[in-house]
Design a protein that fits this description.
Number of strands of chain A: 10
Largest sheet of chain B: 6 strands, mixed
Distance between the termini of chain A: 55 Å
Strand content of chain A: 5-15%
Number of helices of chain B: 21
Largest interface: A-B, 136 and 135 residues
Helix content of chain B: 55-70%
Strand content of chain B: 5-15%
Oligomer: heterodimer
Shape of chain A: elongated
Shape of chain B: elongated
Radius of gyration of chain A: 36 Å
Helix content of chain A: 55-70%
Structural class of chain A: alpha/beta
Radius of gyration of chain B: 36 Å
Number of helices of chain A: 21
Chain lengths: 607, 594
């Protein structure tokens, strides 16, 4: 990854340009702070000269002059501190504001990205951009910018001060700097490289430990303790080796930078000493140089780190740009009118869907291909020419083996996928022409994975309509057969369900997810194998409870177990994306085809 | 029943007991002692470096007074050489000290890490049931890092700083008492100001960290649940929610920046003002206005130099307390963990159990929580080569039976015997070599597929391991990997399907060749083809072995020699499928619900 293109990121420029005035003001403050900082050694030199001439001439006002210089020094110190504080407040504060805006835009984009993006990318991949990369950009727009500006100004102003005092000594004093700058740059790169390695090795140590502890039953069960410990020791030893490597690089860098200050001073003393003796140079001027050089040596030592951080920031920016460039493929139709959905008559005509191979669609460069996802490497046709009509209020059961296209069908019907060929009509209106708000309210989905947010149960149930009354929530909970569980929960509906709903059992989560969909009172209800996580008895009970509800609205019931769909008005059997059979339960049983075979196998256990 | 993982231990961290400081330091010393020579060496270098640092301003003073302001010329070269020498010694001292102390520290921590790991391996499974893995990982990583901090920039450096300051003050006092008192007056001011500002800075920083981790946790949740957010059209609410935490974070960051900015200017300012004070007070002496004693210009400059140099160790010292505190907290946790009671050791002369694999449960009583027994008076005898299917409602104790057989948990009463030997009299590793376990979630270790197959017998040749795998039909599966059996397993086996992972677990058993097999059949949905491969593999694995299987598939139950129905902590019924269905008891009820 080249650092150059990252720094040219239009996004960053746009965000920074909004606040360029503040950055400019910050730079002015830096100039003032630097000038005042260099004034202190200047005044010290003047004071020494004053003392010297006072000693030789025995004049009475020498002390008064000295006091004036001391006061000047106090003033310069106080003002300098003020400006220094101000420059940091301005520039560092500004970077936090820029990054705040960046986060805001990033999240807004994440909200618009299509579900297919999230199917292709792990949460961790997305998170690393939102957390680590944003952090690095913050470094770039804040400290890195500050140090680069400060160092530049320090060199310009410092060299001016020094040249003003004595050009020859300036050349002598600064002579070792280029060598050290080169040295520091290389060492800083090395230090950062090794610290990253050390960090990743710490990651390996903790991953190994995590693996060992999670697998503790297996390890003990297979009597593998000794081997496992040896593997851990190996990781821990590598960690120590890396840490020592880092210490080696560090112990070269810091002492050398101190040495640089000493060496510069020594050179100035070698050349300047005789000059003072010969009366060509005031002793105060010589001492000024020691002060200037000490101030200049600091940023010379850290410049290497600053440049490395800049590179990292640029690379991070590139990765963020990449995320922002992911296309938003599902958009609301322009001029969509409201209230198109009446009873929920559903008509599907020649629906095709193919997952393109992951490599051919826009994806983040570090996206990992997950073998469990359809179309991971080669792309796959998932739905082929699926057509059916479902009258308002009817129930459709969809069965088929894993990978037959059941979930894809649900996703297409809820506009989670880009429909490319074929059409879906809801009460005569093309699904793609529905306003988002109406679509989300009228077509409710109970997804396979009952994801709950770590809020209260009530908030989760009312997720689609925040602020719903308690009665409404209670009714939804009742319909989803969750009421009887409330007593067992510590705070009933107000119970915090924990991360991903861990405080609830699998069946409770699933029913909460059903309640969440039911609460919207949708015209069309899509259940994607929603009962697979509960045992048969509970599944039957929920189905029974949902029956009155299903009577009033169009329902599609996708199931792994044939038994779940047995009571549906109409049943589709999907195989490899095609509708291979359709009809009522008894009709299909009589036909003795795929459906009948599945029924016998699952219900009677004939393998 | 699977034991309740991590319940009720949420706040254990905050209530972690505090160990007495003396005990803690003694424990730390126990681990440091083997590396103490490096420690002393580092300390010696530290003093060398301190000396070199203190010598430089002194030489500069001599240079000013004797050579620059006086006409004396001889010896200037020697002074320059001395100055260079001190700089070189300082460089060597700093570098050597850093290296020696780091090596001592890292070696100590390596020993400690290994000891923590060794100890974890000896803790009873009950401990893991109530302690989340994440926290334990933290002990061996984050907490040990905090101790590391204590070593590299803690105790030893504090000593160096204190010596430096003491000697510097001594030099100043010997040069001029009055001026020393005047210039050192800035030290308490500096310390008070730094500590004051830093307290606010730290508070702001802590708040910043909290807000940041909250925002990240929220973001993580929003991204994982994006499907739901979009399905329910809640993008706007999510954006608001995020905006709120984003703004909160920004204000916290700005507060933190405020104090950091002040802090960054503070040292420089006070150091400059101290210089002014030195000029003020010292200037009078130099000019002879104080009468009696006259101060040289070089001495005045030395004062300025020493005072400037003192602010670095002063700043460091004010930071050390936090490092020390964090180190002690980490020490509490690490040594608290090492104090956890390990499992009882294996008997000195373990019983040797040999035979065809007769398993007996004799009036076994057990509960994960002793007040709530899972099994009570549980009796079961499995004959050599017999295939027993364990069935029962969720929570009836089927998994418990397997956990007890391999002695992952100690029974509360009764006895379990393998070929006549009480398993408590046997060495754990011997027992576990004879009883092969296959759990529902197959645990795969990093390494190749082949390595995972021969896990229990690493010395198995490639051919032998592959033969076992081929027997079960793994050949078809590994074909899709470019490296076949040598393909590395992705983290947690993510590049393998559930069915494939099961097959690997079966292959493990074929390689390990235990006499008894304890198997929890997987419940995950697999397609029909994989299903039949799995059934065949299971059949092969159980052939000629005493097997206890927690059966979830009807086919497995039907093939069993005997079905054992568990309920209420004991055996309710036993028999073959048809008989039990006809009997119309608990099994018939379970079967109806299937």
């Amino acid at each position: 990854m080249s650092s150059g293109s990252g720094l040219r990121s239009p996004l960053l420029w746009r965000l920074c340009a909004r606040r360029r005035g503040v950055y400019a003001f910050g730079a002015l403050l830096v100039i003032a702070a630097v000038a005042l900082r260099l004034t202190v050694p200047t005044l010290l030199g003047e004071a020494i000269d004053e003392l010297r001439s006072g000693l030789s001439s025995r004049s009475d006002n020498a002390y008064d002059d000295l006091v004036a210089i001391a006061w000047g020094m106090v003033g310069a110190a106080a003002l300098g501190a003020l400006f220094r504080t101000g420059s940091r407040l301005t520039i560092l504060g500004n970077s936090r504001r820029v990054v705040h805006d960046l986060r805001e835009e990033l999240f807004a984009h994440l909200l618009r990205l299509p579900p297919s993006f999230y199917v292709r990318h792990r949460t961790g991949t997305v998170m690393s951009r939102c957390v680590n990369d944003v952090q690095n950009v913050q470094g770039l727009t804040g400290p890195v910018f500050l140090y680069l500006v400060e160092t530049t100004i320090l060199y310009v102003v410092g060299l001016t001060f020094m040249l003003w005092t004595n050009p020859l000594l300036t050349v002598v004093g600064v002579a070792p700097f280029p060598v050290f700058l080169w040295f520091a740059r290389r060492l800083a790169a090395r230090v950062q490289h090794v610290s990253r390695e050390l960090q990743s090795q710490l990651g390996s140590v903790s991953a190994k430990l995590d693996e060992s502890l999670t697998g503790q039953r297996v390890i003990r069960g297979l009597a593998l303790e000794d081997r496992d410990r040896a593997a851990f020791e190996e990781e821990a030893r590598i960690y120590r080796a890396r840490a020592l490597e880092l210490a080696n690089a560090r112990s070269l860098l810091t002492p050398s930078m101190v040495f640089l200050g000493g060496l510069s001073s020594l050179l100035v003393l070698i050349v300047g000493g005789p000059m003072v003796s010969r009366g060509e140079l005031e002793v105060g001027d010589l001492l000024k140089f020691f002060g200037y050089l000490a101030i200049l040596a600091g940023p010379t030592g850290t410049l290497g780190f600053v440049l490395s951080s800049m590179q990292r920031g640029a690379a991070a920016l590139e990765r963020i740009d990449e995320l922002m460039a992911m296309p938003v493929t599902i958009r609301e139709a322009e001029g969509a009118e409201a209230d198109r959905v009446k009873g929920g008559r559903l008509e599907v005509r020649g629906l095709d869907f193919a997952f393109p191979p992951i490599r051919s669609v826009p994806h983040l460069s570090d996206a990992e291909v997950d073998v469990d996802h359809p179309g991971a490497e080669h792309g796959r046709e998932v739905l082929r020419d699926v057509s059916f009509t479902l009258e308002a209020g009817q129930t459709l059961g969809v069965v088929g083996a894993t990978g037959a296209g059941k979930t894809t069908l649900i996703r297409a019907l809820s506009r989670q996928l880009e429909i490319e060929r074929g059409q879906v009509f809801v009460d005569g209106t093309d699904l793609c022409d529905l306003a988002f708000e109406e679509l989300r309210q009228q077509v409710a989905v109970v997804p396979q994975d009952a994801f709950l947010f770590s809020r209260t149960l009530a908030e989760n149930v009312a997720f689609g309509a925040p602020g719903s009354s308690t009665e409404v929530v209670n009714e939804a909970v009742r319909i989803a057969h969750l009421s009887q569980d409330l007593d067992a929960l510590p705070h009933g509906l107000e119970t915090l369900v924990g991360e991903r709903g861990v405080q609830l059992s699998g069946g409770q989560r699933q029913r909460a997810s059903i309640a969440r969909a039911v609460l919207l009172e949708p015209a069309i209800l899509l259940l994607d194998d929603a009962l697979s996580a509960v045992d048969n008895e509970t599944a039957d009970r929920i189905l029974l409870a949902l029956e009155p509800l299903m009577k009033d609205r169009t329902t599609i019931l996708v199931a792994h177990r044939v038994r779940t769909v047995a009571r549906a008005d109409h049943i589709l059997v999907l195989d490899d994306g095609r509708v291979v059979e359709s009809g009522g339960h008894s009709e299909l049983l009589k036909r003795g085809g795929t459906y009948a075979a599945m029924w016998h196998k699952q219900e009677e256990g004939v393998a | 029943m699977t034991p309740p993982a991590g319940h009720g231990s949420r706040d254990q961290d905050s209530t972690a007991r505090r160990l007495p400081r003396g005990y803690l330091l003694a424990q730390i010393w126990r681990f440091v002692r083997p590396h103490q020579r490096l420690l002393w060496f580092g300390l010696a270098l530290l003093f060398l470096n301190v000396g070199a640092r203190l010598g430089q301003p002194w030489l500069m003073k001599t240079a000013i007074d004797d050579f620059l302001l006086d006409e004396e010329q001889t010896g200037f070269v020697w002074l320059l050489v001395g100055y260079l020498g001190l700089a070189v010694v300082e460089w060597l001292g700093r570098r050597g000290q850093l290296l020696a102390l780091e090596r001592a520290g890292q070696s100590t921590l390596l020993d400690l890490r290994i000891e923590v790991f060794r100890h974890l391996q000896r803790l009873p499974m009950r401990f893991f049931d109530r302690t989340p893995v994440g926290r334990l990982v933290g002990r061996a990583t984050t907490d040990i890092e905090a101790l590391q901090e204590l070593f590299s920039s803690g105790l030893v450096t504090v000593l160096g700083d204190i010596v430096f300051l003491a000697v510097a003050v001594g030099i100043l006092v010997s040069l001029d008492l009055e001026l020393a008192l005047a210039s050192l007056a800035s030290v308490p001011v500096f310390l008070a100001a730094t500590i004051f500002v830093r307290r606010f800075a730290r508070k702001a920083y802590t708040e910043l960290r909290t807000r940041l981790s909250q925002m990240n946790a929220d973001l993580h949740e929003q991204v994982s649940g994006m499907e739901v957010v979009q399905l329910f059209g809640q993008e706007e609410q999510s954006a608001h929610r995020f905006s709120d935490s984003n703004q909160g974070l920004r204000s916290a960051q700005l507060r933190s920046v405020r104090w950091e900015s002040v802090l960054s200017a503070l040292t420089e300012m006070i150091a400059s003002i101290t210089t002014a004070v030195v000029l003020w007070v010292g200037g009078r002496s130099v000019l002879g206005l104080d009468g009696d004693e006259v101060l040289s210009i070089g001495t005045l400059y030395a004062f300025v130099d020493y005072m400037r140099q003192m602010f670095v160790p002063l700043t460091d010292l004010s930071l050390r307390y936090t490092v020390f505190q964090n180190g002690m907290i980490a020490g509490d946790r690490i040594f608290g963990l090492l104090k956890e009671e390990p499992e009882s050791p294996d008997p000195a002369e373990p019983a040797v159990s040999e035979g065809a694999g007769v398993v007996e449960f004799d009036a076994v009583g057990f509960g994960y929580d002793p007040s709530r027994p899972v099994l009570s008076g549980f009796n079961l005898r499995v004959a050599p080569g017999e295939r027993v299917a364990l069935v029962g409602a969720t929570g009836a104790g089927k998994s418990t039976v397997l956990n007890l057989l391999t002695r992952l948990y100690e029974i509360d009463s009764g006895a379990i015997r393998l070929d006549g030997a009480d398993i408590r009299e046997m060495a754990r590793q011997d027992l576990r070599r004879r009883v092969g376990v296959v759990t529902q979630d197959v645990f795969l270790f990093s390494g190749s597929i082949l390595d995972n197959i021969r896990l229990a017998r690493p010395d198995t040749s490639d051919e032998e391991a592959i033969r076992a795998a081929e027997e079960l039909g793994l050949g078809e599966i590994v074909k899709r990997f470019p490296n076949g059996y040598y393909e590395p397993v992705a983290e947690r086996g993510r590049n393998l399907s559930a069915g494939e992972r099961q097959l690997i677990a079966f292959a493990r058993v074929l390689v390990a060749q235990p006499d008894v097999i304890a198997l929890d059949e997987a419940t995950s949905n697999v397609d029909a083809e994989t299903e039949s491969i799995l059934q065949r593999a299971l059949h092969r694995v159980m052939a000629n072995r005493t097997s206890l299987v927690i059966a979830h598939r009807l086919a497995t139950v039907r093939e069993a020699d005997r079905i054992v129905v568990i309920g209420g902590g004991e055996v309710l019924e036993t028999g073959r499928h048809e008989d039990l269905v006809q009997a119309g008891g608990a099994y018939a009820e379970l079967d109806r619900l299937r």
